[in-house]
Specification:
By secondary structure, the chain is mainly α. The chain folds into 2 domains: 96 residues, no CATH class; 117 residues, no CATH class. The chain has a two-stranded antiparallel sheet. α8 packs across α9. It is globular, with a radius of gyration of 19 Å.
């Protein structure tokens, strides 16, 4: 009981000045857009970091998780974008580096998260014994694109809201430029595939199907935005890409 209480009460303020400076910059940029960006939690977190206040282990976990996902939307050249502002409010790149270092120092194993928010495959992850002669066309039992349906499964309400926000933010920033965007249906399908994949095989460092599924959504958004996957082996969701996307099977010449 004492150990558990210590974990709850223990807090840390040894993050570098760069973390505080990023939070201060985020606060200033948010003020310029009439504080329309970030949730109340993000705004409170920014004030804590800007003032150098101690934060708990649980907060550091959330900080690392959020910054790993939100990096997809960070664009240092676009200081009016909510993705950029929110990322800075949580400490920015310096915050992510410190949080990762601190959690490792505390003996907490982290999932390897790619540069754009996708989870990298762990060498410790068990291999699937499912044979698939043509991975680009889905499993042997399922037709191509069959996993695009929910099949009776439902995305949790909180995750649904997060997916909707990701879709809205992405389309606001990139749809006009790319000539195509994403829909909540696409992201919902990718999310559910992530849940299914987690139940079959995943890195032992990943503790929840939510983290695994959201990371897969982030990886999907990266493909849509850049035209290529961060991990060349990631081809399982190509059938869900917008029809005009260069990697979409529907866009074959």
């Amino acid at each position: 009981m004492k150990a558990k209480l210590k974990t709850i009460l223990e807090s840390y303020s040894d993050y570098p000045e760069a973390v505080s400076n990023n939070a201060k910059r985020g606060i200033a940029l948010n003020a310029r857009v009439k504080n329309k960006c970030a949730t109340q939690t993000g705004k409170v977190r920014a004030q804590q970091l800007a003032q150098g206040k101690p934060i708990t282990e649980e907060t550091i976990r959330r900080m690392y998780s959020y910054l790993s996902r939100a990096e997809t939307y960070y664009d240092e050249s676009d200081t009016k974008a909510c993705g950029t502002i929110s990322y800075l409010l949580w400490g920015g790149k310096a915050g992510k580096r410190w949080a990762a270092s601190k959690l490792k120092e505390l003996g907490i194993e982290l999932a390897e998260i790619g540069e754009r928010g996708g989870i990298k495959r762990s060498k410790k992850a068990p291999k699937s014994d499912t044979k698939n002669p043509n991975p680009k066309r889905g499993s042997e039992k399922n037709k191509p694109g069959a996993a695009a349906t929910t099949r009776g499964l439902k995305v949790p309400e909180a995750a649904e809201k997060a997916l909707q926000k990701k879709a809205d933010d992405f389309n606001e920033r990139y749809k006009e430029k790319l000539g195509y965007g994403v829909t909540i249906a696409m992201l919902r399908a990718v999310y559910l595939r992530g849940v299914g994949a987690f139940q079959t095989s995943h890195s032992p460092a990943v503790k929840s199907q939510e983290q695994w599924a959201q990371a897969r959504v982030n990886a999907f958004l990266y493909i849509v935005r850049t035209g290529r996957p961060e991990n060349k082996k990631y081809t399982g969701d190509f059938d869900l890409l917008p029809s005009k996307h260069p990697k979409s099977p529907k866009n074959k010449k």
